[in-house]
Amino acid sequence: MIETSYPLALEINSLTKEFSRGKTTSKALDNVSFNVEQGDFFGLLGPNGAGKSTLIGVLSSVVKPNSGVIKLLGMDFKTYWRQCKMAIGIVPQEITFDPHFTVWETLKLQSGYYGLRKNEKWINQLLDFLDLKEKQNDKVSSLSGGMKRRVLIAQALVHKPPIIILDEPTAGVDIELRHKLWNFMTELNRDGHTIILTTHYLEEAERLCNKVAMLNHGKLVALDSTSNLLARYSKERIKFFLPPGQSMPVDFPFKYSLLDNGFYSLDSDSPDSLRQVLNALKDAGLTAEGLELGKANLEEVFLRITHDNDNI
Ligand SMILES: Nc1ncnc2c1ncn2[C@@H]1O[C@H](COP(=O)(O)OP(=O)(O)OP(=O)(O)O)[C@@H](O)[C@H]1O
Ligand SMILES: [Mg+2]
Prior knowledge:
Oligomer: single chain
Helix content: 25-40%
Shape: elongated
CATH superfamily of the largest domain: P-loop containing nucleotide triphosphate hydrolases
Radius of gyration: 24 Å
CATH class of the largest domain: Alpha Beta
Number of helices: 10
Strand content: 25-35%
Strand order of the largest sheet: 6-7-8-3-9-10
CATH architecture of the largest domain: 3-Layer(aba) Sandwich
Bound molecules: adenosine-5'-triphosphate, magnesium ion
CATH topology of the largest domain: Rossmann fold
Number of domains: 2
């Protein structure tokens, strides 16, 4: 059999990180395993404190895990750390810079850190892409928050890494910049870069990410393609409206809500739910019109999954 040599972009196996506070320890990452394929636009989601930045901290070698194995493009993270460092560009959640340097100097320095001396052409392109040209001689400390975030992104990309990890790149940025960053990330992904993104804007993840992992209390609670996650939850939502003169009886056996547009909406965990609801409507002498299986959005999926997981 022919073996294809197409390594995964990222393999995470049984990653655990405990933080100690006094005598108590808590697991920021609890036996987390998942893979990211090359070319994926991968969303790493989870509520505050779920462990997303800790995981990214491990990948930037800022956080030392207690246990677990990580491979980047098939290379063991510990053994091939130099090659791994070249393979990823990380945009951290926290904005920190040396305030003494200008934008241009910051990017030159970062290039030097990767041993790239003649990097001016790419730096200029990055400045163009990110609309930073006019600010290139300004001190980073004098820039606005949104501008600083762009510099942070440029900084992570100076060595053209095949894998790009962005920890909340659009947090607190205005709508215009958010759209620019979406376009920029989409272009990078189209050019073959694997992108891993954390965000609290679920609409953003739904729009951009082909796959999604959800963390909650350090545990992986969902891992699937975005379309599968949406389809799974859509099936459980039924919508319809009633013709004039008809209304739902008070003793209707299923819980429902009346939407602003006059549609009734029902959630059910049973795959037979559609048939059961239709029977109940028929028994009540009602005619459901405009019947559809509702579209779930990623925000609802996220709330359902993290809520279910909290109740275990
Ligand atoms: N250096 C540290 N020392 C002690 N505890 C830490 C440290 N860093 C993170 N933690 C804890 O680990 C847990 C996960 O934090 P983390 O920053 O990874 O969450 P997150 O998913 O990135 O959250 P957010 O969405 O708010 O950015 C939290 O309970 C946090 O308090
Ligand atoms: Mg975080």
